[in-house]
Amino acid sequence: MQYDYVIVGAGSGGCALAGRLAEQCPDATIALVEAGPHTERNLFVNMPLGVAAVVPFRRKTNYGYLTTPQPGLGGRRGYQPRGRGFGGSSAINAMVYTRGHPLDYDDWARLGCDGWAFGDVLPYFRRAEGNERGADALHGADGPLSVSNLRFQNPFSHRFVNAAVEAGFPRNDDFNGPQQEGVGFYQVTQRDGQRWSVARAYIYGRARPNLHTIADAAVLRVVFDGKRAKGVEVMRGGLTETIEARAEVVLSAGTFNSPQLLMCSGIGPADHLRALGIPVLHDAAEVGRNLTDHVDFTINKRVSSAQTIGFSLRGFAKMVPGFVSYWRSGRGMLTSNVAEAGGFLKSRPTLDRPDLQLHFCTALVDDHNRHMHWGHGYSLHVCVLRPHSRGAVTLASSDAREAPVIDPAFLSDPRDLDLLVEGVRLSRRILDAPSLALCGGRELYTRHGQTDAELRATIAAHADTIYHPVSTCRMGGDEGSVVDTQLRVRGVTGLRVVDASVMPTLIGGNTNAPTVMIGERAADFIAATRRATPRQALAGEPVRVT
Ligand SMILES: Cc1cc2nc3c(=O)[nH]c(=O)nc-3n(C[C@H](O)[C@H](O)[C@H](O)COP(=O)(O)OP(=O)(O)OC[C@H]3O[C@@H](n4cnc5c(N)ncnc54)[C@H](O)[C@@H]3O)c2cc1C
């Protein structure tokens, strides 16, 4: 099989790129190759509350990775769910639509990523966004990624927002508006009460004859002609085949699997590759390095009210009308994303932007919902927005179908634990404010009056990811970076990386929308390269992409 472009991975970055590129280059053929299944008809993916079922377990649509034992977490292995199938992680995520702080992108530009300051990326956020609130200077209304207000808001989420205001935090109804700081309800990537994964947004329901989707096909490595990428080797239905790319190969396999595929293809730290018997094509020390993720701690509180989602006879009884309402009109409790409300706080008022994020969940979400409890409750997550700890992704095997070794090195930099302690103390102010305090309840692992040392031990025993790993194929203007500022892999030609792994630093917010923005920008880069490429090269001769 031969195409002009072969995109590996139909996640947030890959779907946005494939859909937009197909539209911009109608004369180009594109293959979007995905290891997992199609998700168009998957009830647990489409129904927002299905998030509670798809995240906790390794399954066909979730890699359910484990990290290496984390010294900062008392030696525990962290859990890293990652979407598998069309939509990638956007098919299993919590649908929260935030972009990070404008200054985060200005930082990218300052670090050498010319053309990636907030003013440069805002048009791409707007182009992607289909916000039901309408367009303004910061928002788009006509883009494919539907952004909606929640159709169902649990009374406890309202209590959380009221309590936070009582505790002195500002109310914010638009975290992507002129000010990020404050507390309120999140907007979500949903349309008509359905999850709007990036596959739904850019791929499904759009007839594009030049875009060919290939499901259940695991890419094993990139194939090269000298140093020029010319296709990918794929395992499908037990058979290995090569899909050729006349113009470019793009890796959009995500923060764990894009560096894995680069290394399996001979691009990475030479010593590590040699140790696994992989011939070195290009010695790139930073492939897999700089892994950064939002480390998060949750205060779980059990309450007697059955208004939150929980396991009880009253809870089960509510599910039946909930299902009917969802089925008939796309409304009701099953359209909840669980993490309905939250906010961005500053640990010190003098900071130029918030350094902590809250997610308020209307259920007892303990250990990614892997530890289930009988009864009802709520959970207040707090995470460190710009952690200093840096981890790495390395190979366990030269076979890309095996899980890579994931070491986020959580809390290896003591500043992250110090800030998380601050975050828990700020969160407690909200829990103690009248609107929530009057509901009573009992905390599962934390308690009032804990000393600093006790709180640090509790954090080490329970903290983990809130699912935003980035930076393992860092973009930069410097030679040490894995990709340049047009996302081209350094040291070879005809190969780009387009997903969350290229972020030079972790932005202060949720990472789906920024990854879609990266996919949108990449489509422009690739279309511009195509326009600049001589016609005869497009007709069959190898295309030299500079
Ligand atoms: C549980 C969870 C909750 C989250 N909640 C939110 C949220 O509420 N809001 C938000 O903004 N962000 C959230 N995120 C983060 C966000 O969804 C991700 O940052 C984003 O989807 C990453 O996009 P990506 O393109 O980098 O990778 P992914 O979307 O993960 O896509 C990678 C794709 O590549 C495929 N692939 C991998 N290896 C291969 C191979 N060898 N061959 C072929 N295909 C391959 C995978 O199967 C996958 O489909 C959450 C993530 C998770 C896991």
UniProtKB/TrEMBL annotation:
<feature type="binding site">
    <location>
        <begin position="93"/>
        <end position="96"/>
    </location>
    <ligand>
        <name>FAD</name>
    </ligand>
</feature>
<keyword id="KW-0274">FAD</keyword>
<dbReference type="InterPro" id="IPR036188">
    <property type="entry name" value="FAD/NAD-bd_sf"/>
</dbReference>
<protein>
    <submittedName>
        <fullName>GMC family oxidoreductase</fullName>
    </submittedName>
</protein>
<dbReference type="InterPro" id="IPR012132">
    <property type="entry name" value="GMC_OxRdtase"/>
</dbReference>
<dbReference type="InterPro" id="IPR007867">
    <property type="entry name" value="GMC_OxRtase_C"/>
</dbReference>
<dbReference type="Pfam" id="PF00732">
    <property type="entry name" value="GMC_oxred_N"/>
</dbReference>
<comment type="similarity">
    <text>Belongs to the GMC oxidoreductase family.</text>
</comment>
<feature type="binding site">
    <location>
        <position position="219"/>
    </location>
    <ligand>
        <name>FAD</name>
    </ligand>
</feature>
<dbReference type="GO" id="GO:0016614">
    <property type="term" value="F:oxidoreductase activity, acting on CH-OH group of donors"/>
</dbReference>
<dbReference type="GO" id="GO:0050660">
    <property type="term" value="F:flavin adenine dinucleotide binding"/>
</dbReference>
<dbReference type="Pfam" id="PF05199">
    <property type="entry name" value="GMC_oxred_C"/>
</dbReference>
<dbReference type="InterPro" id="IPR000172">
    <property type="entry name" value="GMC_OxRdtase_N"/>
</dbReference>
<keyword id="KW-0285">Flavoprotein</keyword>
<feature type="domain" description="Glucose-methanol-choline oxidoreductase N-terminal">
    <location>
        <begin position="254"/>
        <end position="268"/>
    </location>
</feature>
